[in-house]
UniProtKB/TrEMBL annotation:
This is RNase H type-1 domain-containing protein. Residues 12-93 form the RNase H type-1 domain. It comes from Littorina saxatilis. InterPro entries: RNaseH-like_sf, RNaseH_domain, RNaseH_sf. Gene3D superfamilies: Ribonuclease H-like superfamily/Ribonuclease H. Signal peptide: none annotated. Pfam families: RNase_H. It comes from the Eukaryota. One of its GO terms (molecular function) is nucleic acid binding.
Length: 133
């Protein structure tokens, strides 16, 4: 399904995840980016000694958005893949201004949330967020 909907050669695919020990401490986040060229990059980010799962998920998306902001051009299509429904809902409800600002700084082809969560449906920008199980 992923390859059919977001073919690797046409999309920058950004996978993010975050978690914390016992859901409240020693948080960490991971980002894996597949570029349409076939190149990839992976990063692990510490998110703090006192950090919740939610905060680690947010930090993963912020870090990923910052990482790709200088690597996309107006023709790039970007899809973020995450398992953090609560974070996607918070972005959709304008509860995460730092992430919202970072996403606004990305210049690419289109912008939308998948799973019926829309993000900035304006102009021709397209950043798609996919909830994965």
């Amino acid at each position: 399904m992923l390859d059919e909907r977001y073919p690797q050669e046409a999309w920058m695919r950004v996978f993010t995840d975050g978690s914390a020990t016992d859901a409240v401490k020693r948080g960490g986040a991971g980002v894996y980016i597949q570029h349409p060229s076939g190149e990839w990059q992976a990063e692990a980010i510490p998110t703090g000694l006192h950090c919740t799962n939610y905060r680690a998920e947010v930090e993963a998306l912020i870090h990923a958005a910052n990482t790709i902001s200088s690597k996309v051009n107006p023709d790039t299509q970007v899809v973020f893949l995450t398992d953090a429904l609560s974070v996607l809902q918070a972005v959709n409800n304008n509860k995460l201004p730092q992430l919202t600002t970072t996403l606004h700084n990305i210049t690419c082809l289109k912008t939308v949330f998948d799973k019926r969560l829309e993000l900035y449906p304006r102009n021709t920008r397209y950043i798609s967020f996919i909830l994965i199980d």
